[in-house]
Design brief:
There is one protein chain. 47% of the residues lie in helices and 17% in strands. The chain is α+β, with helices and mostly antiparallel strands. About 14% of the residues have low confidence.
Length: 247
Amino acid sequence: MHLDDESYLSCTVKVETLAKRRGVSVRTILRHTKTLAEKGIITVLFNSSRNNAGLPERLPNSYLVMPNVIDSLIEAYNERVSKVRAETLAKIKAIRDKALAVIAARKNKSVNVTVSPSVTPSVSVDVVADIADHEETPPACTSNGSAVDLQIRRIYDEYVAITIYDSRDHAYTTMPKSHFLESDLGAVYHVKSRRKRILVGVVRNSHAYDELRNYMLEQFRLATSDLQEPLSQESLALIDKAKKLAC
């Protein structure tokens, strides 16, 4: 190709040569050159001449390539890309803002992990196997144990019945499909219905985990605050084990 002037570039070449260079058929070259010509990117000049016998002879076509048209098409394309990008970013921002609003509203309306002494979390799942010393069977209180012993046992059972996940990824990959992880709090709920969910797990070192641990320790403190006699060995062992699990 060579530059004849500033308005166009010219090239004279056989259709067969273009097809061979591009590794496509002659029909493909003809179809593409027709499309480029319709868009004004090129102008096709069909050259002809006469041979020594005076008969018409077909010569290679000449192609005039219009840089100004190409530049205008590129500019129009960039404008469309910029417009689509701006619209996409606006949609993403709207979706993000809506999601953050839903999360904030859910956080405000969610059941706080800290439960009052009169309300206990209803759970029915096992604690994960990798909790420290979980394989040891905790000592059981005797059937004729004191009211404090029974209260200590109840608090302990409530705590160890809640699954503790090592991380949010651990919770996502192992919890059942019926469970829902409130990621910002680190609380896992068993979704019974749209209006009913039960706390069944927490993510270690999350806000929910800290609240659950503090609730358990506070319950132990309340249960033993007015003791007139020393705690039994069974209750002391349960409290010690619960504190180790909470570490």
